[in-house]
Design a protein that fits this description.
The protein is mostly helical. The protein contains 15 helices and no strands. It has a single domain, classed as MetI-like fold (Orthogonal Bundle).
């Protein structure tokens, strides 16, 4: 295939992908400015009504269909996503650092035990995890929303690969200069992992923001509803759903993860490309 034809095909596929991903978002944005009854009848217009944004302040301050105000659910989701992302990164850095730079019995067995957990999705261990949280009295608490989700075998593996690439000469030079384990971690290991930390933060923030099953099980208190749980509650009975409010809430739920991706795009791309080298 000639180069020009390949370029045209690639751009056509990219354009198709943009349309497929952007069209549902556009429909939600347009629906948030239209009458709920018209949406329920199937009369959803592709053109937003730029004079009608009344659904946004309504759901932001009042909520609907038994769901808390959106500002509160956004704060819960933001706190949970930040704790999950930060906790996963901190634990993964420390565990990978220990596996790579410390010589202790059964070191490889410990690493492979962590790696094997990649084959166990959250759904498989959901009941034992719930039992542990109940034993510690963390049901219906903010801590219970994020603590069970902060272990990450994937992030541990990624940081291990970064630390393994650090030259032995650098490790020996740091040791001769009197740098202890904590100083080596702070001054060398973490800085060389900066781009990977940024890339992982974006991925893990979105992962934490989109959590549904675990918050649904561990928190029945409405004050702990995340934005994803709140959206489901707002739908309620289909004939009574305020669709413009639901779509306005969905638009606001999209903003924080999109903002994180846009603000950290440069570091995110650098982390992914450096990880391939």
């Amino acid at each position: 295939m000639p180069r020009q034809d390949r370029d045209w095909f690639a751009h056509a596929m990219l354009a198709l992908g943009v349309v497929l991903f952007a069209l549902p978002v556009w429909l939600v944005l347009a629906g948030s400015t239209q009458d709920s009854d018209a949406i329920a009848r199937g009369d959803l217009s592709l053109v937003p009504d730029l004079t009608n944004f009344s659904a946004y302040p309504k759901v932001l301050t009042q909520g609907t269909m038994g769901a808390p105000p959106v500002w509160h659910m956004l704060l819960v989701s933001l706190g949970m996503a930040l704790c999950i992302a930060g906790g996963k990164i901190a634990i993964s850095i420390l565990s990978a650092y220990a596996v790579v730079f410390f010589r202790f019995p059964f070191r490889k067995i410990a690493f492979w035990s962590i790696f094997v957990t990649l084959m166990l999705p959250v759904e498989v261990r959901i009941m034992p995890t719930y039992s542990v949280m109940a034993t510690f009295g963390l049901i219906n608490s903010f801590t219970g929303l994020w603590v069970p989700l902060i272990a990450s075998a994937t992030a541990t593996l990624l940081f291990r690969q970064v630390f393994v690439a650090i030259p032995d000469e650098l490790v020996e030079a740091a040791r001769m200069d009197g740098a202890g384990p904590l100083r080596f971690l702070k001054d060398i290991a973490i800085p060389v992992s900066g781009a990977n930390i940024a890339a992982l933060f974006v991925i893990l923030f979105v992962y934490g923001w989109n959590q549904y099953l675990w918050p649904l099980l561990v928190a029945t208190d409405p004050s702990l509803d995340t934005i994803v749980i709140g959206l489901v509650k707002m739908i309620g009975v289909e004939t009574q759903t305020d669709w413009s409010a639901v779509m306005a809430t969905a638009v606001m739920a999209l903003l924080p993860p999109v903002a994180v991706v846009l603000l950290m795009q440069r570091w995110f791309v650098a982390g992914l490309t450096e990880g391939e080298k």
